[in-house]
## 1
Amino acid sequence: MMIEKHISALLYRHQCVIIPGFGAFLTEIQTARLDAGSNTFYPPKKLISFNANLKNNDGLLANHIALQEKISYEQAVSDIARQTESWLSRLNNREPLILKNLGEITSNLEGSLVFTPDTPVNYLMDAFGLSAVISPAVRREELKVQAEELEEIAPIIFTPERKRNYSYLRYAAVFAVLLTIGGAGFKVYQDKEIAEQTLLVEKSVQEKVNNRIQQATFFIENPLPAVKLPLKEDNKSYPYHVVAGAYRSEANAIKAMNELTAKGFKARKLERNRFGLYPVLYGSFATYAEAHEKMRDIHKTVNREAWLLVKEL
């Protein structure tokens, strides 16, 4: 069974896909960029990386394979174990492991796994259908030089014309100026009259409104008591979560949550997911950058197998 096709399918919707006993493929969003050397615009995409330290089974890949292949969860876990055993055997024999639409994994002299991504597909669903665009460079300096050369070759020549008598046009111009001044003066006068009438109407309306307000103020006998409005709670969304682990037993999940809380984390236990597991969180964050930085700190100090979950709660 080629489990790499199932890994590719999950990478469209998840940022972390763990292959139990082997490692995990992680994604990170790269914004759109411009290659100035080739004048090429590249759309945003997901960058694929590999972490050989994340090996614990979180149930994601096995459940997906069980649903797609119409087999039991236990059979899917067994098939994944056989596949990863075959992969590790090839890598131990210094054979490269090529995974379609993911990349190539090799083993170096120290025995560590080295991943070289090769993703002809874009796993970022928001950029589906977008491709690279090549734009020809605008050569401004060359066009400027060509224009200057043309000016030197073909200078502009003014042709003298016979002098004509246009004295009658001066009188027409004077008449037009006087007509314009007269029209402008009439318009200023009319605008002034309209403004004065509008101001009188507005004053009258305002006096009536003030009288209404004064009457309403005097005739209120039983005013209502003041009402304290509750402050609006923070509706900020925290869709990025650093996961400590997922437990089949709710009691074990609560125990793990209490231990993390005692260590100073804002730990939480999520409800049972569709895989029958209770995820326990180190904490939830508003942005991917905050969650990723916290996960890196946890990898260094507490748990190298913590992973990132993106989910609106």
## 2
Amino acid sequence: MNCLHPYAGESYAAAFGAPYRPLWIPEWATNVLLRPIGDTGREDAMSCYPRAAVAPDARLADGLKRLRDAGAVSVVLALDPLLAPPPARLAESFRLARPFKTHFLIDRRQGAVLVSRHHRYEIRRAARGCTARKVALADHLKAWTSLYGELVERHAITGIQRFSEGYFAALAALPAVTAYAAFLEERIVAMSLWLRHGEHAYSHLSAADDAGYRLSATYLLYAEAIADLGDCRWLDLGGTAGSEDDEESGLARFKRGFANATADAWLCGQVLDEGAYAELSRGQPATAFFPAYRQPS
């Protein structure tokens, strides 16, 4: 196994394309993304989507110094809840360090996966209408790109999650990626992408077309993935969408029905250039959003 986390590598960070550019932080054993701050000529740093794979024993202060020396105004990280440094160390190093989202997990050491009664019904219903199997993402990039494009339009997704033109091709080249597809006869109506790292597996992205939604195909895909990834102790199903931790949302209910554990993903932020940060944030309302100059208008 390559000891470098798949979310940490340069090939993954480079996949996001312009305007993001990777910066390797050896003290954290991960890449972050530098991004321009409007037309100011300055940059700040953020974790790669969807989580920062910062090593548990990372030299946090030294990594922040490297970012400061690179000219970043600030940095904000959404951390992997399974592998991050302990909260006490995060609080010592970052101005902002707080639980951000609840991630729904499967921990195989807690015994057999007990899918909820509702989910078992949806899985059976989906299996009557379609079939699911593991596929190579590279062989079905056109189908996946179409499905994800529908998801972007349906939910008006903006920002980094719109992804660059070459992102999915780069993703398909990663050995860590595993894909599952639901077929209605010979047509793909839903797909689910996962990344593996040792005894951990991460639900990365899922999308379905109208037929896939009607058939509840994503329930069947998750059941297929959970069975196929049986040698992984931990499966991280992720949290809710957006910046709010809405545990009553449909997505939260979907993931909760498969999970037998939860963990908090922490959000960490640090100002690296106090003068520039104050200037950029001038006139912004006082909220908890970080960095303040990027809060939605």
## 3
Amino acid sequence: MIPLKSQNELQMIGRSGRILSLVMRKVRGVIRPGITTLDIDRLSEELILKQKARPAFKGYKGFPAAACVSVNEEIVHGIPGPRVLLEGDIVSIDLGVNYQGYFSDAAITLPVGKIEESKKRLIDTAKEALDIGISRAQPGNNLGDISCGIQDFVEGRGFSVVRKFVGHGIGIALHEEPEVPNFGKAHCGPQLKSGMVLAIEPMINLGGWECRITDNGWTAVTADSSCSAHFEHTVAITDKGPEILTK
């Protein structure tokens, strides 16, 4: 059962999303060579708490941090620590906010200093894939229209789409129905309706789509050690079209 949100719920999820957008803008401004992934996590948590909200990820199923910080071949769920970002790295920052029981979720991948052209194309493609997925989040479309749009675009650019991890419904809980794959067939799956809220999040790889989980039990990395990029927004489906709540 895919929950439909009331106007009041949408407004509260929107407030959560605006907090997350503010935090993400400030965090992205500090990304540079020499900063550690733990620095990113601490700043993220400090900024969320300053907005009288809570980090949605910290403690979720035992996750130890406020931010998922994934570098280069790490796809998602990177655990912050002493790792220093180096010139030429790319880093994905995934953040969630719980504001008075209403959840939002967003992710971005950023260059660390000057990066190779292939990494730049990877980041640009992931960002554009998110835009395409969002554009298909229209009442009357099917969930598969989002998935197919993302997959066709990404594979057309010569990259691969991660299969193991997908987007999800969000709002009253961090993860709700439905799952939102980044691969699939058009005109398939549940019909999209006004009031649904989805976390749409393409995760794409420079090499193959296969991945593995590292020894920490959380962090997913590409099986071939190629780089990965991840973008995400929380999106409300409305009669006027998709509304990005974390923009």
## 4
Amino acid sequence: MKKGGVLAVVDLGSNAVRLQIASVDARGRTTVLAEDRAAVRLGEQVFRTGRLSAAAIARTTLAMERFDRLAQRAGASQVRAVATSAVREASNRAQLLRKVRGRTGIRIEVISGAEEARLICLGVLLGAPPSERSLILDIGGGSSEIISARGEEPESAWSLQLGSVRLTEFFVQSDPISRKEARLVDEAVQDALTQVDPLLIGKFKRIVGAAGTTGAVAQLARRLSGGEPVSSLPVTYQQIAGVLERLRGSTARQRAKMGVDAQRSDIVYAGTAVLEGVMRRLRVDELAVTSRGLRDGAMADLVRRMGGARLHQESVVLDGLRAFGRRCGYREEHAEQVAQLSLSLFDQTREVHRLGEEERALLHAAAMLHDVGSFVSYNRHHKHTYYLLYHADLPGFTDRERELIATIARYHRRSPPKDRHEEFQRLTPEERIVVRRLSAILRVADGLDRGHRRHVRSIQVKRRGARLQIDVVAEKGSDLEVWSARQKADMLADVVGGDLSFKLQES
């Protein structure tokens, strides 16, 4: 977005949906123009039944229609909507996505837990120096994210099934909460926290709470301590523990007198229990609260995407790809070689395929992980790769992007894409074109490392009329690689629309 403009983002959380509208200048700097919130309780029942309720879908759709009108009045050129745990876990999420798309034209992105953590980190720590270390906590309705960060990128992150709505629906029946219910909530929190790296215990004295629940609990802690509710000063663990104790014996009427918002009254105990449990487990002394969070990260990410930033070069994205590959026991050196050759071929054939940076990112991910299906079985590993990537948790990519990555990787060998293939049928006509072109590039790149020997040092693509010549600079004895690339070049020849030849230059 070199000339600036107005953008809007929506965070569809399990408790509330939140809108942010911002203007963007020519340098990519944002100024928030308006923010709005609607407590639609999207996660109502979903954590027990596995389905979004009809009432929650209706409330959310109405809120999205209102947000869409606000964005249009502000002149927003694009509205980005991201959904988290409630929609992520719902078996009928397609119903919500279709309804909102039909009423507003907005396509909701269902993001993974890892991507949620990345966006929260970006929103809270945008512009932080690389040397700065931080610990972040975001307590949502369905999940909580604990993030250890360096600069504005997460070093490690955990998305835990600990949310104020989830815990309340599972364990809280009475008002005030009973001793047994309080014990079950605490046990659930401590059990989930065993997933967090124990090396984090005692490492940070302060934790940063991202908006929402942590902000409400901090305000309550200050109020109950006789201080100013709205303050930038941190609150102590002892204050948070005191709030939990007060809430444990309080009724809805008493919570209202304390200043608890009516829309949060029934879930505030569970949210406070998560906060207190995290601080106790990690031995954190202070909580500092920021108003920034997921929607700020979604906005910053959108601005970078529209500005042409190569998001797949961010270390958190690359680390996520490598981490998934390692879990599947992939051959890392082969993956890196194929990725390098794929990107080189992509960059040198831009005039032919006419794809941009977003598609380049998809190719990079597919190339890095094209062989992970070998973890299941080599003979059909392209199909197993599709399944694994379709369900993978890859930071930096939306659900739709992950599906495209899976489909590109699926066609790195054997049969080319066919309209009768179920996974290919799911794609739009435009997406099918992208998959054909990127999988064509990936097939050739994979062929150029047939023996997994990394013999090919570089490639140079030369256009001679309708003909494309690929000079392969490689070590002596690399005939197998060139032969394999030639055998797998049929799809790329179709993309080129002419002859395709290879020339080996031994070095």
